[in-house]
Amino acid sequence: MSPNTLLWLVAGCLMLQPLSTDLYLASLPHLAGYFAVTPAAVQQTLSLFVIGFGTAQLVSGPLSDRYGRRPVVLGGLGVYGVASIACAAASSLDLLIAARFVQAIGCCTAAVVARAIVRDVHAPAEGAKVIAKASTLLSLAPIFGPIAGGYLQVAFGWRAAFVVHALLCILLALASLRWLVETNARRNPDAMRPSHLLQVYGGIARSPAFWAYTLPGALSYASIFVFISGSSFVLIKVLGVPTELYGYCFAFGVSGYLAGTLVCRRLLARIGLERALGVGTTVALVAGLLFAALVAAGAHHWTIVVLCLFLTMSAHGINFPCAQAGAVAPFPAQAGAAAGLLGFVTMAAALLAGTWVGASHDGTLVPLATISATVSVCLFVAARLSAGRRAIAA
Length: 394
Hints:
mainly alpha
C-alpha cells in the first residue's frame, strides 16, 4: 500500500464509529415518540452500542494478532453491514437495540485493527502523526453526519440513517478488498488461547505507560460523549432548535475536532507528544468549567452548548491521537491486544458518561453542564498525575 492508500483506508475504518452515532443523533428524540418510550430508553441504542464496541475490542484485537489484519477487517465490515440492515428493518426498540449491539461489534473490529495497522508500519511518533491525519479526515463524518441525519430524519424517518450505514460499509469493504494488504508480519498462533489472552492483557494492564496514555484518552472521549448522548435532547427538546437545523449546530461544534487534529499535528512537530497532550487537556478543562459557569449564571441558549461543544471537541482532537499512539507504542508484538484494551477502557468511560447523562436529564441544561465540567476536571487531573509515567515511557 502507498502511504496515501493506507491513510484513507485507516480513516475509513475509524470513520465508521462517529457515523454510527452521529448520523442518527437527530432521530433520538423522534425515536422516543415513535416507540412511545422515555428518553432514557432510547439512550440504550447508544449505550448498547458502546457496550458492544467496548467488549468486542478485547477479542478483535487478538484476532488480528492471530489471523492477520486483512481478514479480520473484512469480517468486521461484513458483520457491520448485515447489522445495519437489521437496524433499518427493526420493528421494535428492543430489536433495534440488539441490532445496534451487533453493529458495534463489526464497527469496533474495523477501528481496532486500523489502529494496529498503523502500529505495524510506523514508529510511535510517526504513528501519532498518521492517526492525527486520519482523524482530520474522519472529522468530516461528525461534521456532515448530523446535518445529513437531520435531513434524512425529516424526509424519510429514522430508518434512513441505518440504510446509509449499510451502503457506506459496502463501499469501504470493496475498497479494502481491492487495496488493503496484510501488515501483520508477526502472527501469533497462541494469540486467541484463553491463558495467553489473560497473560497478554495482564501484562498490558500492569504497564504504567499504558495507563498514562489510556486514562486521559478514555476521559477525553467521555467528555465528547457527554454531548453526543445529550445534545440532541437539549437542543431540540429544551432549547427548541428545529430537527433539520440541529445537525448544523452539532456540525459546527464538531468542526472543533477538525481544528484540534490540525493543531495536534503542528504541536507534535514542535513540542512533542507529552506537551501536546498537556495543551489538549487544559483546553478540555476550560471548556467544561466554562459550560458550567455560563449555565449557572443563567445563560440558557443554544449558542452556549455549541461553543462548549466546539472547545471540547477541539481538545479531543489534540488528546486522542496522542493517547492512541502512546498507549499502543510499548507493545509492538501485541499491538492488536493493546489497541483493544485501550478501546475497551475508552468505551467503558463513554458508557458511564452516557448513562449519567440519560439518567439525569430533567429538561434543563444543568445536568449536561455539570457532567461536562466533572469529566473535564477528571481528565485534567488524570493527565497531570500520570505525566511522570509518560516521561519515563518516552
